[in-house]
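hey so u asked for the seq, here:
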Amino acid sequence: MKHVLQLQHPLFIFENIDNPKNTVSLTLCLDRLKSIANIPIDEKEERAIKRASTQRNKIVHHEYELNPDYYRTVFVELFEFVHYFHAKHLSGELHDRIDSKLWRTEAELLAQFDNEWVTYRGKKLPSSLPLDIVVAQRYTTVRKPTEDGYSYLPRERYCGEHGSECPDCGVNNGEFHTSFCDIESCPSCGGQLLMCLVSPEACNVEYWIPTRGKGLP
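ran it, structure tokens below
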């Protein structure tokens, strides 16, 4: 929010523009965004900003009770607001600013959004799909029953044969398909992997995260 305000004028983020020392509070920032910068802030955004300010004050003044479930709900709501606010007012996607080590956490939060659709990597997707995409990258093999136990076969990555993204599951070129994608081929028989996953009469394979001795040397 302060960055959006600062883009209008560098001094707007200070409480006293004649003595630029302390930056504005969330409440004052909101007032200036609406009244001075004429930035359109809808009712849902304003509620989220005021709730963020209230929660911050409780934490700073030690006036909160440690309830992980409640504060996770609050965090999800605020993250949804930040995700929406960033795309609306900064003409960019928040995902591009998040460390890759936190992409799974981001995807888990997206899956809990009230909105059923989210913008993720430049595409509008069902809110649950980003987590499916992130998780799928760990299952790099499938395993198949054999007389001696199992054989471990590497999965094929999407190679862009249908465009820059898979038309069924939405992964990008070079990524592993999400579970039960119609497009992915079985590394055992070359047929549709989906059928080999669900039918014991086919290859009877299953997704597998390789570990030492089980898909890894």
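The beta strands are 117-120, 123-126, 141-146, 149-154, 206-208, 211-212, 215-216. The mean pLDDT is 88.
lmk if thats what u needed
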